[in-house]
Known about the structure:
alpha/beta; six-stranded antiparallel sheet; binds adenosine-5'-triphosphate; Leu-rich_rpt; repeat; nucleotide-binding
Amino acid sequence: xxxxxxxxxxxxxxxxxxxxxxxxxxxxxxxxxxxxxxxxxxxxxxxxxxxxxxxxxxxxxxxxxxxxxxxxxxxxxxxxxxxxxxxxxxxxxxxxxxxxxxxxxxxxxxxxxxxxxxxxxxxxxxxxxxxxxxxxxxxxxxxxxxxxxxxxxxxxxxxxxxxxxxxxxxxxxxxxxxxxxxxxxxxxxxxxxxxxxxxxxxxxxxxxxxxxxxxxxxxxxxxxxxxxxxxxxxxxxxxxxxxxxxxxxxxxxxxxxxxxxxxxxxxxxxxxxxxxxxxxxxxxxxxxxxxxxxxxxxxxxxxxxxxxxxxxxxxxxxxxxxxxxxxxxxxxxxxxxxxxxxxxxxxxxxxxxxxxxxxxxxxxxxxxxxxxxxxxxxxxxxxxxxxxxxxxxxxxxxxxxxxxxxxxxxxxxxxxxxxxxxxxxxxxxxxxxxxxxxxxxxxxxxxxxxxxxxxxxxxxxxxxxxxxxxxxxxxxxxxxxxxxxxxxxxxxxxxxxxxxxxxxxxxxxxxxxxxxxxxxxxxxxxxxxxxxxxxxxxxxxxxxxxxxxxxxxxxxxxxxxxxxxxxxxxxxxxxxxxxxxxxxxxxxxxxxxxxxxxxxxx
Length: 602
Ligand SMILES: Nc1ncnc2c1ncn2[C@@H]1O[C@H](COP(=O)(O)OP(=O)(O)OP(=O)(O)O)[C@@H](O)[C@H]1O
């Protein structure tokens, strides 16, 4: 039951040291609050563990994870786990997905009992022994990755109907590749010097070699074999070590060159702009030795590591004040957004601490969650969920100039309230002095149902004060220009500008081809002073009936936020309350039908 699952997890966490803290508090509910743990629908059993890159070190003890006998997904990849895999884990009969790659597991490659197994990834470990013939029973397997271990012997004649991805490369396998596996590419088998047959060199192509007689070596390429026989194991090791050293040096040189080039370019690997380009390598500054250290803030969702990220195809979304932003599509189809930060002023410790805070704040439904981050001397990356519906900036301005439909009033109200709630949460959870520091419409991202989510939380604290970003200047409170320090009150000012932007349809920046205003609060104030008219409002909004009063109320809230004197501005909590008090759009229909008039949400 859930209690024994909980105990098994606690036993695991107690026994296995880990670099990153787990919030596995015995008193807190496992299914809703424990990082990296997924339960079944009725919350009676643990069915998934996703804990990649937590820094687990040492062996997994028996009677810990192995006791989770309803477990379907086990992901402990990219840790420092070693020793043999306890047999109670390999015996769990419910397992469907096992991701244990990039660890230091050793011992004989175990057979997995679960006939439900869909994916088994044990690559980049130190497993030895043969491929168990029992793998033939795993008829549901679609992925089998055993690359970069020390597995030896012949490949058993596996015939797995669903197998799509197979990788046995870089092991010590020998003999001929079974017919049933010959449809897989070369890359599935390379790096096994004693292995032959399609798609590698055919085992029987021996006629060109006069001696030794091919009949002595019926299944092994004589060419490879002959050269191998002359070397003793000592010289093979020497050559391998030498080869690796040269390769490592070359790689290091290559990375250095890339870095130098990057520095010269200022930021980003891309030379141009736009979305059509496909950079292959936005992580070229990542040092070989520091790979795999992608730190996850919520391991329960994603299953990838730094290598996957570096391999992903990426496209530039834009260059912001903090650096370049990429959309990356991982090999398994997961889409994430990677921010490559420049001019980070924080030390590694400060960066980590900030990310911990950001991790807590990211749990709010109006904040774009940070999924993972990476910090090295040369490269700082922050990984976010991809928000396919785009930003408020796009919906308000770009969409329209591209002939798209304008956002209606109800949607604007909903986005305004959501964003205000997100900012209020940032102010309350991050501590009394915690600020966002860069509130603007391109940092309000939307879900499909137009829930406004605030992005880039915590980044302003890590980066040197951006002075040049024109898109930011229009949102900046007057005092910040002098003090160069954001405060919660300056966030309120920026939010006020954002509200004015939604009300007027004008962007607070100079942008050719758009109806923009450099100082939006000043412009609105001057119009309002002349006469309280509909002139300030976006013409698109004037199409809607019976919303003028709400628009005027919102305008008042916005103007109170952009008060010149910081102390005259409301607190973010108050702003939320004020917006809530304007009749809720979703309640308007019911209210006007007379059944529930004057309804206000709490
Ligand atoms: N998680 C995300 N999902 C989808 N689009 C995103 C995501 N994060 C950022 N974007 C979009 O990518 C583009 C570039 O973002 P970026 O944050 O680099 O620039 P910015 O918002 O203009 O400036 P700043 O760096 O000051 O926030 C923006 O249009 C932004 O809306």
